[in-house]
Amino acid sequence: MPRDGWSPADYARFADARRRPFLDLLSLVEPTSPGPARLLDAGCGTGELTCQAHRLLGATATLGVDASPAMLAQAEARAGVTFLQASVPEGLPPGPFDVIVSNSALNRVPDHQAVLEALARRLAPGGQLALQMPSNPDSAFSRCAHAVAAAEPFRTELGGYQYQSPVRTPEFYARALHQLGFAEVRAGAWLYPQRHPDPGGLVEFARGGLLSAYRSRLPPERFEALVSAYRRALDQALGPGPVFFPFQRVFAWGRRP
Fold first, then answer.
1. How far, in Å, are 88, 98, 184, 220, 256 from residue 181 at the CA level?
2. Which of 23, 147, 178, 253 lies 20 to 30 Å (CA to CA) from residue 53?
3. Does the reported pTM lie above 0.85?
4. Residue 139 in contact with residue 206, Cβ under 8 Å?
5. What is the distance between the alpha carbons of residues 233 and 82, in angstroms, rounded to a whole number?
6. Are 62 and 41 in contact (CB under 8 A)?
7. Residues in the chain, pLDDT under 50
């Protein structure tokens, strides 16, 4: 069974780069007065951004849910904010919630039609859903990870596993939310360019996200070997640098009637 692949230290190394899309996600949530009585952060990680959402949206009670014990070990409950270790969406409480946000989490959860249905069921009338998911399937960033996992010895060590992103196009989310009866819907993709002196910067960023799927399936020393192989593959694909990577994130927002 896969272990917890998340490393809070690796994730936090690019905290500013990860915070910016979260703030953009919150900007999609239309303000209400008073603020939402119940806010859910589905896939809250270390909870730092959950506490920011609680404050910025003026929520009365906020629940952060994440499946990773390592990430939740860093979470600090504050007034009005609590945390729960559970899978998303299966382990989410029934609600209802006035606002549900999910930031850079659903890219590790399959079957997004079922996910949207599960989240929609947990929204109160007039409630809002806001999602953000990284999606770079056609980039060297992703292709090199696939190639390394598909080659020996990692193919055997991983039992043939390769991470495949479940994230769909903005049109998919717009249509799915419309079909689920949302009264208002917006969806799109934004680019967050990264600039690194050499491919090593992308490798370090991937350690905190993309490569976590492999960390959970390999002993530590073999994971480090995979990271080294990934670095060599990126070096070959991108050259010595500098590196410009237009990192893409898909956003979707909707309001229930």
1. 22, 16, 9, 46, 7
2. 178
3. yes
4. no
5. 42
6. yes
7. 1
